[in-house]
Amino acid sequence: MAAVRTAWGIRLPALGEWFAQHPEWWPLAISLAAWLSLAPDRQHEMTPLCVGVSPLQSQFVDAFSRWILMILGMMPPLVVLSVRHVGFRSFRDRRHTAIAEFLSGYLGVWIAAGAVPLFLLSATSIPGGAERRLIAVLAYGAAIVWQLTPFKRQGLWRCHRTVPLAVEPWRTDLSCLRFGASAGVACLSSCWLLMALPVLTAHGMSAMVCVQGAMIHERYQQCHRPRLATSVILLCTACLLDLQGHLA
Amino acid sequence: MGDPRTAALDPIFWLNHANIDRLWEVWCKTCLNPNPTDPNWLANLSFKFHDASGEVLTFSAAQVLDTTKVLHGYQYDDISDPIPASPHLMAATAASAPSPQPELIGATAPVPLDTPQTTVQVALRPQVAQAARARIAASRPTRVFLNLENVTGQGSLPKYDIYIDVPPAGQDASNRSPLLAGSLSLFGVQAASDPSGPQGGSGITSVIEITQLVDQLRREGRWDEARLHVTFMRRDIGARTAVPTQDLKIGRISVYYD
Hints:
The complex is a heterodimer. Helix content of chain A is 72%, strand content 0%. By secondary structure, chain A is mainly alpha-helical. Chain A has one domain. Chain B is globular and about 65 Å long. At the A-B interface, helix 1 and helix 8 of A face strand 3, helix 4 and strand 11 of B.
């Protein structure tokens, strides 16, 4: 096959094969787009989640839509290995379908898990000033303690679980969806408290970046254990940034 | 020896692992196989050992790559290749193009190994196989792999020999001689099957190259791009120590072209 070169000198067949060998490219592209859409959201960052004058319903819709964006941004980078597992355990012609089914189950669990807590938070009036600082410090402290527990370690181990995928026509769709959902439940059991931090700080970028860093770091460690020093440093950094920034 | 938690108490464990280390050295010196350079493999994972006085010593993989520098240092008497590498392996290793991911050609549903002998048919997809071979052939010879995915089980588990064959449709396969593909070792399966363990209950996955056997079947006109029979035969049949298997299951048997 003759190689066609683009204006930047990239060989198109080689580029096509690179995408075929890295089917995780589009979940990561979705993640990037979600991060970019959250980044300029300074208005929300400056306004704590539960303080405002809008009616309860619109406040919940607003918070839930930001929760969905946060999940789309922060979760795909955590499941790159599972996405590749699903892709390469499927026939080549349905790799992306299988990945989409896996992500539907995985992200669906996370998105659904946020609905009730966000509704309750929207209906609650959280005080500002010193009391709010105290809440933030307690939340970060609880997250650090959670990182030390055996429940966290076991949850992290379950995140690396793989399952055999069916190849028969409709069973394969079901098994990818079910694998995604089970990966979502495992991820939720490991990272629920970490993901609560950005919510409590009104999706503050400092909390999101630090939590994302801690989650990625522990997820891709060869020994599959929470990296306590890294977690503590990143969470303390996020706490200090929050206290100095919009919570001040 | 069958359980990772107690294996090191058996003297044969040390002979076995000393030879595995020697074979690794043979592997590195032949077929142009250098040690991996990924820092995750070299430095980010460490292992604890005890010395003769009971003191704990910690080593990373990077610290034991050169046998002449480990503790007091040692060299093997013989690291000649006991089995000349296959032409496929040499060609694949020498290929300059980066190795793409292997492609799935066919797979089964879960296979319980609850009888001394189990035969299962892997349904292959001829069109997928032909397309994969065409893609791979552009850069190197096609290799064929048998994947035994997510093997789980409890208790003391026996070993199995694995045979492949393609008997003609509707013909009794009992009087044929299937080809020995390898063995299925269940070392560590019980620990890997624990849902609360580090593997999260995934079990183990074993990969066996069957390229030469498939070539032989092709030469004999017995190869069928649509199906492959795989037979598992317990090694301890008739032995007094034979133990009943407990929930031993292969999550999926798949065939890959690479």
